[in-house]
Amino acid sequence: MSHWLIAGASRGIGLELTRQLALRGEQVTASLRAGSRLEALEAALAPAGSRGRLLEFDTRDESAVRAAATQVTEPVDVLVANAGAYGPQRQSSLDMDFPGVLDLLDTNALGPLRVAQAFLPQLRQGQKPRIVFMSSVLGSMALEGTFNLGYRASKAALNKIAQCLADDLKPEGIPVVAMHPGWVRTDMGGPNATLGVEESVDGILRVIDGLTVADTRRYLDYRGQDIDW
Ligand code: NDP
């Protein structure tokens, strides 16, 4: 049994990660924001019994993230920084809602690092600790296309942050990877996405289960295939 921390678990991929991990008998700490829908997450955590726990924080709020971290006194083995947003309507290079995109950058690029920094003491005590930042192929510098520039830029920034954290934690033997979950039918991915959430999460968990320090600084999809930065 390992202890997993899933940040951003109220819906979509984070909720399904929590559900599958609880069913598999892991210890699961799952976070959601104040005011988010609680029922589905409680149901997903139920099979974990006393090994399940809820934390409440918005990843943009450093003091809330740090306060939540003080509630976790035992080691954490895996952090999945999953919380993410798609952002405002106007986010192209020709017409941008700048405050809206600044907020998106806060959530998608800085949020995962805030969570990783806050829980680093617990991760350092974990068995085979691993950090996974939920990125997107849309953050790849190699990918063409211009739609949703704000989202792309936020995930590109997250990718750079993942690389730097990977380099900083390599001497401690803690791998850090950026992950693309596939195009998944969630509120964010929409109904036309190619993958069901169960299939995506099944793949994500296989990849994370196999991660070692040799994988640090990789940008991987849910099948374990490398993506061009
Ligand atoms: P959803 O929109 O279904 O869920 C997003 C989750 O993130 C919710 O739990 C939401 O909480 C939480 N969240 C958003 N902003 C914050 C915040 N500031 N603080 C805390 N929690 C927050 O998205 P998905 O499940 O589809 O996506 C999960 C991750 O995967 C994201 O990082 C996304 O960018 C990435 N991804 C998804 C793809 C897809 O096709 N679905 C493709 C590529 C990447 P709340 O309920 O409170 O809003």
UniProtKB/TrEMBL annotation:
CDD domains, alphabetized = carb_red_sniffer_like_SDR_c
What InterPro entries would the database entry show? Answer: NAD(P)-bd_dom_sf (IPR036291), SDR_enzymes (IPR052184), SDR_fam (IPR002347)
**Gene Ontology MF: a single term:** oxidoreductase activity, acting on the CH-OH group of donors, NAD or NADP as acceptor
Q: Which domain of life is it from?
A: Bacteria
Kindly give the SUPFAM superfamilies that the UniProt entry links to this protein.
NAD(P)-binding Rossmann-fold domains
Full protein name: Oxidoreductase
